[in-house]
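Sequence, please.
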């Protein structure tokens, strides 16, 4: 049984009602990412940044996993320990669909972090700049989200997975943000077959051996059914 590494982006959650970033009505067409998704933006106006993530957290909590999230959870159950999900998404729809061991490159909306002492805890529905850290008591709490210019989480676990992968699949990512945008190249160089599942070809389409276009809720379940049938 082969090792499958799956990268997901905002596109897998689009049909659950969570917007993407760079599609026609994407988040970055409505917000200035420098104001709400950079350390400088947070230093300048923490209340604005908390408000942005409070709204995103509320959206994510009302959203439901879709057929694409559920299909990946089914694949993991069929091949325990062989299917790894690395996501750029900060929602918890993979986990709520039943997936386990999900590696969140960019952090999680359900996490709070103390910028002073590094303490982590579960985020309340709404966070405010004056919230005291439960460990050091300082009012330096931030969403546990990786901002532009910050280094993504879990890379020490991800590089070996990409080298060991027999199959690398990217789902619903525009291929515009590094290091995730280089994962297909990394896995391909190590011998993986690379498959892209997306509504339209991404910026990294040339890095893939195979591309299937369509809505994730249709093409992801179809792909999972196909490989489960093929490999018994
Ligand atoms: P973000 O804007 O904070 O981006 C963080 C990541 O972008 C970092 O890993 C960084 O390395 C990378 N990055 C991208 N361009 C970069 C550049 N030019 N230079 C350096 N680093 C760069 O995104 P986020 O925090 O993941 O999401 C922002 C908000 O949008 C969140 O609240 C999230 O809930 C919401 N959102 C979520 C989803 C979802 O989870 N499915 C979808 C759309 C929007
Ligand atoms: N089915 C499949 N793919 C879809 C669907 C859908 N229903 N809807 C949109 N897509 C695809 C788009 O074609 C695009 O390739 O999802 C991708 C969305 O791209 P982005 O909005 O750039 O989202 P993503 O690739 O996840 O962004 C990467 O950038 O701002 C940072 O940290 C943020 O994690 C985010 C990172």
């Amino acid at each position: 049984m082969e090792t499958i590494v799956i990268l997901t982006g905002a596109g897998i959650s689009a049909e659950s009602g969570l917007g993407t970033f760079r599609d026609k009505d994407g988040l970055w067409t409505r917000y200035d990412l420098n104001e709400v998704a950079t350390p400088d933006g947070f230093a300048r106006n923490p209340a604005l940044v908390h408000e942005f993530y409070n709204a995103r957290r509320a959206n994510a909590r009302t959203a439901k996993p879709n057929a694409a999230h559920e299909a990946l959870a089914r694949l993991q159950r069929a091949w325990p320990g062989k299917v790894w999900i690395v996501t750029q998404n900060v929602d918890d729809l993979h986990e709520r669909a039943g997936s386990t061991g999900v590696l969140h490159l960019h952090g999680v909306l359900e996490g709070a972090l103390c910028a002073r002492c590094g303490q982590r805890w579960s985020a309340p529905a709404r966070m405010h700049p004056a919230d005291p850290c439960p460990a050091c008591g300082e009012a330096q709490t931030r969403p546990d989200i990786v901002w532009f210019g910050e280094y993504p989480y879990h890379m020490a676990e991800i590089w070996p997975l990409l080298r060991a992968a027999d199959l690398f699949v990217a789902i619903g990512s525009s291929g515009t943000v590094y290091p995730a945008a280089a994962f297909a190249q990394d896995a391909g160089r190590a011998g993986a077959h690379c498959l892209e599942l997306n509504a339209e070809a991404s910026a990294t389409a040339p890095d893939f051996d195979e591309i299937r276009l369509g809505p994730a809720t249709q093409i992801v379940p179809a792909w999972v059914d196909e490989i489960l049938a093929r490999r018994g």
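The longest strand covers residues 107-114.
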